[in-house]
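Sample 3 of the quickstart, ligand FE2/S2 (inorganic) cluster:
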Amino acid sequence: MRHSVRFYLGDERIEIASCDPTGTLLDWLRLERGLTGTKEGCAEGDCGACTVAVGRLDGANLRWEAINACIRFLPTLDGCQVLTVEHLTRAGVPHPVQAAMVEHHGSQCGFCTPGFVMSLACLAANGAAPDTGRIEDAIAGNLCRCTGYRPIIDAGEAACRDGAPLGSAGIAKRLGTLRDDELVQVGDGERRFLAPATGDQLVAVLADHPDAVLLSGGTDVGLWVTKDMRRLDPVLHLGRVRELRETRDDGATLVLGAGVTLSDARPLLAGLHPHLDELLRRFGGEQVRNAGTVGGNLANGSPIGDLPPALIALDATLVLRGPQGRRKMPLERFFVGYRRQDRVPGEFVERVAIPKLRPDQIFHVSKVSKRFDEDISAVCSAFRLTRDAAGLVTEARLAFGGMAAIPQRAGAAESVLLGRPFDERSAADAAAALADDFTPLDDWRASARYRLAVAGNLLRRFAIEEGGTGEPTRVAGLLAQSAAASSHA
Ligand SMILES: Cc1cc2nc3c(=O)[nH]c(=O)nc-3n(C[C@H](O)[C@H](O)[C@H](O)COP(=O)(O)OP(=O)(O)OC[C@H]3O[C@@H](n4cnc5c(N)ncnc54)[C@H](O)[C@@H]3O)c2cc1C
Ligand code: FES
Ligand code: FES
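Result:
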C-alpha cells in the first residue's frame, strides 16, 4: 500500500501524504500554492473559469485534457501532470495561445481568459485542426460575459494552425515512473481516500468498506461537496482501476468499461450511430466529458441522464461486480426508483455491453434542453425499431429520460407501433399513447405538459426524418443552414 499521492505540478514533483480527501484542486492551487491565475466562477463545473490542463499517459502516449479544477478532488490527480496558466509562459515568452488571444483581442476583463487559454492550449497540444466547429466544442464549457466568442475562436484557429506544444521534454517518461499497482490510501486523520489500481483490489476494498462513496470522474460527486457541503468518508476512487477503462468490440457488441470517459466513449458510440455522436457532443462541455464517465452516468440514477435512454433503447446489458462475483442485467432493470438502482452494498458497475444496430433496425436519439451546449436535458429520447421485410414494425424500444422518476420505456406507445409501418400516422398514434405511459416530471427545467408534448413531437420527428422529406428538424442542421445562408449573403 502507498500512503501518498504523487503528481507533477508543472515540472515540480509533488508528493502528498496527508490531505482532505475531497479538497478540490482549485482550492489547493489558489490557497496552498498561490496560483491565482486559475479562477473560481461557479464552483460547479459550468463556467470553465477554473480550467486547467491535465497530462496523463494513455499507453505510452501523453494526452492533454482540459478539466474543471473546481470539482476535481486533489488526490485523484495521482500519476498526472497539472498545468495552470502560470506554467504556459516560458522565459517571458507567452505560449502561442496566449499570444493569439492578445493578437485577436480575445480578452477584456480577463476573468474567463485563463480558462479559455487552457481549453485552447489542450486542443492545440493534441494536434487539432483549425476547425471552427471543433474549437466551438472545445470552448463550449467556457463562458465569457465581455468579449464575445468570435475573437476567441479566431485565436483558437491561429493556435491550432501554427501548432502549440504543451509540457516539457521528458514528462511522459517522468509520469511513467509514477505508475504502480499499489493501493493508495491517504487522508487527513479523520477521513480517508482510497484508490485501488486493479479490479481485484477494488472488490477487496469495497468488501471492507461497503458503504464507501464511489468516485469516478466526480462531475456529480464533486458538486455534493462544493454545493451541498457534504462530508464524504471514505471516498473510494475508481479512476486508477485499469480494467474499468477497457473497451472491446466483439463484432456484434460494443463493451465499455464503467470508467471510460465520455470523451473516450464518444468516437466508439459515434461508430454505432451518428445521433450518438451528437448526443455526446452536447453532453456537458469538454471539461465534463474529459472527467465524467459512462459508469458514473448510469450509476448516478438520474432521471435526466443522457446515456440511459440511448443505451436502454439499444438493449444494453449491465455487468455488476462484487464480493459474490459478477451478475448481468438488462440496463432498464437497473433503475428501480428515483435515484435508486438494483445495486447492493459492495457492488460496483464494471461495464456495459451495447448491441450494435442490425440492418433491419432503425434508431433515433434527441436531446431537448434550454441551452444547446452544456445543459442537462429536459427530455431525452431514444428509439430503436426493428422491421420485417414488408416494413412492418416487429419490435419497438422507445426510451425516455425526463418523463418519469427513472429513465423508462414507453410500453403503451411501443405496442401501438407493432405490426404497422412506421410513418407519420403511426408515430402520431404512438405519441398520443405516451399519456398512458407517463406522468412527467414538473419542475423548473420544464413543465409536465411541455415534456409530454415534446416527447410526442420527438417521435413524430423520427418519422419525418425517417421518411426522408429533407425537412430540417435538428438545431444543429438549422444552425448550419443559417450559417451557410449568411456566408452567401
Ligand atoms: C457542468 C455539468 C454538465 C453536465 N452535463 C450533463 C449532460 O449534459 N448530460 C448528463 O447526462 N449529465 C451531465 N452532467 C452530469 C455528470 O457529468 C454525468 O452524470 C457523468 O456521467 C457522471 O460521471 P462521473 O464519472 O463524473 O460520476 P461521479 O460523479 O464520479 O459519480 C456519479 C455517481 O455514480 C456513482 N458511481 C460512479 N461510478 C460508479 C461505478 N463504476 N459503479 C457504481 N457506482 C458508480 C457514484 O458513487 C455517484 O453516485 C453534467 C455535470 C456537470 C457538472
Ligand atoms: S469555477 Fe466554474 S467551472 Fe469551475
Ligand atoms: S473577458 Fe470578461 S468574462 Fe470574458
